[in-house]
Amino acid sequence: MKKLIIVIAALSIAAGAAFFVIRNEKPVQTYRFEKVTRGEIVATVTATGTVNAVTTVQVGSQVSGTIKTLYVDYNSPVSKGQIIARIDPTLFQAAVEQARANLISAQANLEKSEAALVNAKWTYEKYKELLAKNFIAQSDFLTAESTYEADKAQVDAAKAAINQAEATLKTAQTNLEYTKIISPVDGIVVSRSVDVGQTVAASFQTPTLFTIAQDLTKMQIDSSVVEADIGKVKVGQVVKFTVDAYPDTTFSGKVVQVREAPIIVQNVVTYDVVVSVANRDLKLMPGMTANVSIIISTKKDVLRIPNAALRFRPEGFKPGAEDKGVGVWVVDNENLKRVKITTGITDGNFTELVSGGLKEGQDLVVEMLSKSKKTASGPRFF
Q: How many other C-beta atoms can be found within 10 angstroms of the C-beta atom of residue 181?
C-alpha cells in the first residue's frame, strides 16, 4: 500500500510538471521563404494592339451604276492596273456616242460659219471699195460691215462649241473608263463589299467596293500604351507578342513609331505605338489581337529579389523614420530583421538588387505561416 501511494504521488508530480510546461509554452511564428537568386531580368511594358497590314487601300467607284462583273474575291492576289470589277457600261457608252455626235455637229457648224465668214469678208471689202468711189450708199456698206462682224463672232462661238463638245466627250469617255474598277496596287483582296447586280451610288461619296492589303508579308501592330508607361517606350526597342490563334508561339517585332496624338476613352489616356512585324509565313492576319511586351531593358547575371519579399510586412510592425525606403525581411536567431536595399529594374516577378548586403542563396521572408507551439519568447523586430 505504501508503494502504491508513492507511485500515485510520483505520477501526480509528473502530471503537474507537464501541465506547467505546456501552460508556459508560447506560440512561435513560422514563415515561408524564397531565396535571393542570380539570373536575367527583362523589364517590359505590356499593351494590347491589333495586327494590320502596313498599307491598306480602299478601292471605290467614282460613278454610279450596277455591278455587272466581279473578277476577284476574298484572298485573291491582284496586280496594279488589273480590272477587278466592272459596272454596267451601257449608259456610259451611250453618253460617249452622244457626246461624239455633238462634237461632229459642232465641227460642222464651225465649217459652215467659216464659209459664211469668207463670203461676208469678201462682201465687206468689196463694198468698202465701192463706197470710196461713191458707187453705193453708206447704209449698204454698214450692212455688209455688220454682217462681217456677226459672222466673225459666229465662228468664235462655233469654236467654243467645239471645245465644249470635246470636254463633254472627254468626260463621257472618262466616266466610261471609271466603269472599270482597277486595282491601284499589287496586293491581296482582304474585303469585298459588293455583289453582282448590286447598285453602286456614288452621288455623295465614293463607296468602298474592295479593301486591298498591299503586302501581307509585312505587317504592323497598332498598340495602345497607357500614359504612365509611354515615356519608357522608344523607337527601335524589341517587341515580343502573342496572338490568340497561336498561343504557344511568340512573335517578334520592333517599335517603329510612337505617335504623340493622345487617345482618350473614359478619361483613360493612351498613345498609339506602331510595331513593325515580319510575316513571311503569313500566319498573322489583319484584325488579330496581339498581346504585346515592349522590352525596355535587359540585365543578365544580376542578383534578383522575388517581388513577394518586397511586398511582405510582418504583423504588428510599425515603421519608423529609419524604416523609410525599400527593404526586405530575414530571420536572424528566430527574430525578424529588416534589411534596407536599393533596387533596379523589375520584370514583375523579380527585382534587381543593386545594393543592400544580401547574398545569393539567402532566405527572404515572403509570407507568415501558421503558428507552432514551442517554448520560446517569440520573434522580435530589429
A: 25
Residue bearing cell 457608252: 93
The three-class DSSP label of residue 346 is strand
Beta-carbon count within 10 A of 123 CB: 18
φ and ψ at residue 61, rounded to 5 degrees: -125, 135
For residue 218, list its beta bridge partners: 278
Architecture in CATH for domain 89-178: Orthogonal Bundle (1.10)
Query: What is the distance between the alpha carbons of residues 292 and 221, in angstroms, rounded to a whole number?
Result: 9
Q: Which fold has domain 44-54+219-296?
A: Elongation Factor Tu (Ef-tu); domain 3 (2.40.30)
Q: What is the pLDDT along the chain (382 residues), one digit of tens a residue?
A: 455 455 455 555 554 544 444 444 445 568 899 999 999 999 999 999 999 999 899 999 999 999 999 999 999 999 999 999 999 999 999 999 999 999 999 999 999 999 999 999 999 999 989 888 888 899 988 999 999 999 999 999 999 999 999 999 999 999 999 999 999 999 999 999 999 999 998 876 778 899 999 889 999 999 999 999 999 999 999 999 999 999 999 999 999 999 999 999 999 999 999 999 999 999 999 999 999 999 999 999 999 999 999 999 888 777 776 778 899 999 988 788 999 999 999 998 999 999 988 999 999 999 988 665 544 445 555 5
Q: What is the DSSP letter of 321?
A: G
Residues of the chain with CATH 2.40.30.170: 44-54+219-296
Of 127, 130, 129, the C-alpha closest to 119 is 127
In this structure, are residues 53 and 219 in contact, taking their beta carbons and an 8 Å threshold? yes
CB 254 within 8 A of CB 311: no
Task: Identify whether the C-beta of residue 325 lies closer than 8 Å to the C-beta of residue 304.
Answer: no
Give the amino acid at 283. Answer: K
CA angle 207, 174, 107 (to 5 degrees): 150
User: CA-to-CA distance for 88 and 61, rounded, in angstroms?
Assistant: 12
- Threshold 0.70, pTM exceeds: no
Task: Enumerate the CATH 1.10.287.470 domain ranges in the chain, comma separated.
Answer: 89-178
